[in-house]
Amino acid sequence: xxxxxxxxxxxxxxxxxxxxxxxxxxxxxxxxxxxxxxxxxxxxxxxxxxxxxxxxxxxxxxxxxxxxxxxxxxxxxxxxxxxxxxxxxxxxxxxxxxxxxxxxxxxxxxxxxxxxxxxxxxx
Length: 123
Prior knowledge:
Elements: H1 2-15, H2 22-44, H3 47-56, H4 61-68, H5 74-77, H6 81-86, H7 89-95, H8 100-110
Helix pairs in contact: 1-8, 2-8, 3-4
């Protein structure tokens, strides 16, 4: 799933690479990570599997039980401290998720899509 998201994100950001949209892309990065947290919790489906996943990611047992047994919706659960602790930004980086704002900044530093450097001006 991360690979599919990366393909979409890199193409979309490359298309809009000339736009001045750093803060918008940072907001979208946060929304995307929250949506991926939501998908991960939904895939666990049951209270026991959610608890075991959260505990495996370093969340204390009581906190994991509190999150898993909550009657709140998936989207609201992903904004909790427990979900953010279990799946921090570094976790997504380790999975290989491309950050929109980072990719946009890289494209603007390089100056073109191919990744080659621009030629120095003649003196």
